[in-house]
Write a structure and sequence with these properties.
By secondary structure, the protein is mainly α. Helices cover about 75% and strands about 0% of the residues.
Length: about 300
């Protein structure tokens, strides 16, 4: 078990969450193995840290092209309500799906901060109410419910940008919290004061409807991909801040010798986020078409970005 957890850590830092959940499970149900397991896990984590930081020299660095990574901790905290709500919204109502989401919340406005904060608190209060209901109706099942609640909170907490990640939001980062969320709803349905036969048909019907709706949504999403260019073109149009997608589209058109389209996408990328990559690419295209005034403007933007970083 320790070996596979070590391999999990090498694959992705999220593997650390499985260590915590195994310890929590043993705390609830297998306390006699808890001390032994902790000793094994200490060895696993120590070996991982030695290999990562001493042998591989892989240290935590801030990516200067990721908007959320450039923010300070207080500035990232303003983003937490919107990020938390966006994950819940995508889980329950996945309408606008996009890769490489680099948006940020720069101020505590009503739509970007207070409304998501209210909805997040409402959802967490529902989780507390579910727990109280389970405590009253099925007290012996409370540990299972708490296990899934901790699973969800640990998983979602890792992607709320307390530690800056490579993007503001990513669908795949919700895979781990989904298990906890499904467990929360599963335990809630079991605690409902209805007959088991009625509960079985209700859950079966609800599951059947959800699977069909999400299957259709998956098929629609699959049509967005013919190649990278079609996927990026679609996602750049629906993303809150698609500067990186626009930059990648510009690079694809440039490689295809379509300078006009390439310049349009680089200009969109610079307008949304005047970072080093997109502005440098735009300067290259402007030099190629001989627009000297645009080249001077591009270099002024690059100088301003360099001054901000310094």
């Amino acid at each position: 078990m320790s070996l596979f957890l070590l391999l999990s850590l090498f694959s992705k830092e999220t593997g650390f969450l499985f260590l915590l959940m195994i310890l929590l499970y043993q705390l609830f149900y297998k306390r006699e193995y808890l001390v032994v397991t902790i000793s094994y896990f200490i060895g696993t984590i120590t070996l991982y840290l030695i290999i990562r930081f001493s042998y591989a020299q892989d240290f935590l660095t801030r990516n200067s092209t990721i908007p959320i990574a450039l923010l300070s901790l207080p500035e990232r905290l303003i983003n937490i309500p919107a990020i938390f709500f966006y994950y819940l919204q995508t889980f329950f109502y996945p309408t606008q799906l996009s890769i490489d989401q680099q948006w940020i919340v720069s101020s505590a406005s009503f739509s970007d901060f207070y409304l998501p904060l209210f909805l997040d608190i409402f959802f967490l209060l529902l989780v507390v109410v579910f727990g109280i209901l389970i405590y009253k109706k099925r007290r012996k099942k409370l540990n299972i419910y708490l296990f899934f609640v901790v699973w969800f909170l640990l998983g979602i907490g890792l992607v709320l940008q307390i530690f800056p990640l490579d993007a503001t939001f990513s669908d795949r980062w919700f895979y781990f919290p989904i298990v906890g969320l499904l467990g929360i709803f599963g335990m809630f349905f079991q605690s409902l004061p209805i007959k088991k036969e009625q509960l079985k048909y209700f859950v079966f019907g609800l599951t059947f409807i959800c699977i069909n709706i999400l299957s259709i949504r998956t098929m629609v999403r699959n049509t967005n991909y013919v190649d990278q260019m079609t996927l990026f073109s679609h996602d750049a149009a629906v993303a809150k801040n698609g500067f990186d997608l626009e930059n990648q589209l510009g690079a694809m058109y440039y490689q295809a010798n379509n300078i006009t389209e390439s310049r349009k996408h680089f200009q969109k990328a610079v307008a949304e986020m005047p970072c080093l990559n997109s502005t440098s690419n735009l300067e290259l295209v402007d030099q190629q078409i001989g627009d000297l005034q645009a080249v001077v403007k591009d270099r002024m933007i690059l100088a301003k970005c360099a001054h901000i970083r310094n």
